Amino acid sequence: QVQLVESGGGLVQAGGSLRLSCAASGRTLSNYIVGWFRQAPGKEREFVSAISRSGIITNYADSVKGRFTIARDNAKNTIALQMNSLKPEDTAVYYCAADSSSSAVRSTYRNYDYWGQGTQVTVSS
Prior knowledge:
Layout: E1 3-7, E2 10-13, E3 18-25, E4 33-39, E5 46-51, E6 58-60, E7 68-73, E8 78-83, E9 92-99, E10 114-115, E11 119-124
Parallel strand pairs: 2-11
Antiparallel strand pairs: 1-3, 3-8, 4-5, 4-9, 5-6, 7-8, 9-10, 9-11
């Protein structure tokens, strides 16, 4: 099975940028559809973005479209989430997840089999 570790979270002012990384071990990430989800205190986990095995197909939540970019680096076996123009409402724990069985990119967290521990993103106003 694949193990996922997120990094790159932190505290940033509104309008700033952060780059999250999801590093994999145990398996090659190109075998998985990979998604980013987030969960704010008192709220349900929500979809942020996902990328197909080939990296050609990407999907974004409406709330982050145009501000966030997901990308693969197969040589490093990582997935990056570039987050620009951050807003206070982006504050959450961000999780990387891998889907081993779907044939298409999904936005439902139940489709994802493997999860990282999460990284905290805090955006101050």
